[in-house]
Request: fold
Amino acid sequence: DSTLAYQGAGRDLVTADVEDIARWATSHLRPHLTVLLDVDPEQGLCRFVTQDRLEAEPLEFHKRVRASFLALAETDLEHYLVLDAHADRDAIFAGVRARIVDLLPLTERHHEVQT
Reply:
């Protein structure tokens, strides 16, 4: 999913071509869930003290990446969990935990027995 957003949209490459190459390179592996912590790119970039090559990209790059992630999430609601990155850590944790409980039922039941 990151490949599509960063390489396809961020770098203005043909998304279908990027997806074909990514699926081939990973033998069509895909995560069961992609958690997207959504934040306005201007605000998100302010969180970095130092920047690597991706953070150093122009603001428009980051806007395209965010728009791509949100579009991907909108077309596949079962595969994405979009959370507001401005929420406090406990709220984000609760949102992620609530969603993954259904993906990991044996692990969750085991945890309940242990506590």
Remarks:
- The radius of gyration is 16 Å.
- The chain has a mean pLDDT of 83.
- The chain has six helices and two strands.
- The CA atoms of residues 23 and 29 lie 7 Å apart.
